[in-house]
Amino acid sequence: MYNVYLWLGLLFILTPAAASEPKSPIIFTATPSQCVALHKGQTCYQDITFQWQTPDKGRFCLESSKNKQRLTCWNGKEIQQYRHSFKSNASAVFSLIHHGDNRPIANVKVVVTWVYKAPKQSQSGWRLF
Known about the structure:
Number of strands: 8
Largest sheet: 5 strands, mixed
Helix content: 10-25%
């Protein structure tokens, strides 16, 4: 029994502290997260402010997932927000990526919606009184 406690104690001492600490989540938001156009299919125009908190070290980029366009890149906590002129007729996903491996570490979606879903009925044609 003493050997079990000895091994557990050694394992606890030799385990790096970083492995036992939970990683802090990346905070990433878009404000507003919704863009409203008048009619279905119309292009929506909106200034979107992206805000995030990234680790102190590393190079990160904000990327549009639609066309893989990098909007801005920075080191560590150098910048914490970015204002983007959004222009689209469809919803879009934006990602924070780690510059080295290009994998998204956080995503946010900007949803495009419309006031009127269907176009108005044509006024031509027969009418019944």
